[in-house]
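Exercise 7.
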Amino acid sequence: MPHHDARLTELWAFLLMEELVRNGVTMFFAAPGSRSTPLVVAAARNGRAQVSMHVDERGTAFMALGWARMTGRPAAWITTSGTAVANGHPAVAEARLEGIPMILLTADRPPELRATSANQTIVQPGLFGRDVVWAFDMPPPSVDVPAEVVLTTVDHAVRRSAEGPVHLNCMFREPLHGAEPTTPDVPPHLQSWLGAGGPYTEVSVPGAAVPDVDALFTGALQSARRPLILLGRLPVAAPVGPIVSSMTGVPVLADVASQGRLGRKEGLPDCVTHFDAVLRDRDRWSSLAPDLVIQIGRPPVSKRWHQFMSDVRPARWIVADDSAERIDPVHAVTDRVVAPAGTCLAALATALGSTQAAPSDPSWSGMWRRLDEAATAWVHEELAHRFTEQAIVRAVLQALDPGAPLVLGSSNPVRHADTFAMADGPGVPVIVNRGASGIDGTIATAIGAAQAAGRRCTVVLGDLTLLHDLNSLLSARNVTVVVINNDGGGIFSYLPVAHVEDVFEPFFGTPHGRTFPAAAELFGMEYDRPETLPDVGLAVRRAHTATTGVLIEVRTQRGDNVAEQTRLLKDLQTHLRSQVPVPAP
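Solution. The predicted structure, written as tokens, is:
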């Protein structure tokens, strides 16, 4: 067995944490474990690092994801060896698909214990596969390996994390720490680094040539008769508000997670809030078809949008996003721009402000506007008094604390918000885990967002999503959890299998028969159960000043939700046809 000195492990862990901090990575999320002791101790003893602990590795990974979504900066996830590492994979997959920066610090057994049936030793290198943008199997601390390997590896990892999650698998031998706390002795040749205060390797990366987005957008708009703007899912920090106010004359379809819809009624005069509902009427597609689409951000929540675009296939479709990934689910994009959201939005505002860029078919843009105005008025009246899941989501959004983050669960809540949420409520940062669209770690994501924002976060989710992440309630001290409890998987009721009676309820509906007051008591949360729409709003507003976590449970019936969704969309289509007749082919 190789000789090992615990002081060397302490030194390597110190170097790793110090270099992360010097690169701006100061937030660490961890769960208790043994093999990760050197990492946790080093982070805890670094005065510029903040460590947030939780009992579950899956939860801490999603907390790191939520924190990074709010800040745009990488958080580090620390975990012990074994299956603990695998528990982070759902959050890592989401981060990879969305380009969210994360540093994965996984502790591991040394090489001599691999493939020996040693306890808690699994194959960790490559565990995340293609869901990380870069990975490195860090050797165990050794006098035969230069200590600066730690520093240069960290510098490269942080740089690559701008593209998505990176994985540093850190092998440690026992003993993992000394008997007494000590200050690591930094080798003489690293003393200059220690005193300098900056990263060991200063990386200067020439920025990729940003295309002339102003000219691209202006030229495209000048040659289009029916231009359409889509604000897809955008980062929380995207400067949508002050820029989109200049977007006039061209229909702007704003996804609920575009950061340009909730609370933006005055800022987006041509915003089509209810485009998902409008596009349910296929008979309108030909009359609403654009000849140009400029999309800023990732694909929207709306399934109808993709069906519409697959059918009408505009002559030109420009997608602009800071990710280099392909964003083209219907294989119809003609131009792909890789540039920061701020650059793209500013260029779009400039292009739209040009008199030459006004649409040459104002009757077409007027049709979009009239449809949305009619839909907005109808939804406002129809959902004002009905105690349904659609109206409940809308009531929650109307009662939010301006500027405080909102997390929407990936099943019914985000769909109801996207279809029916008005644009006249408070403006809030919106977070949705729609890269992989899993229900994993939804509460944990909200906890990370609340920590990053320094404000209470509201999360709206279903009962199965809550059960899936129930233990995160332990750390939800600055979170308001609004659970719509319809006793099972409500989203599956929209599928064709819902009509196969003998298998649907036990295998898809999966009723559990549970309510959540005892969960609130167990985790020390305030509990409320509103039974009217006004009471839903009051409960959410009361939670803004709570000093602990709040669990608001709203109970509904799954069957009623599907019937109501069908009725709403059918009646809305009838109303829109009466207000804005479908043009003759």
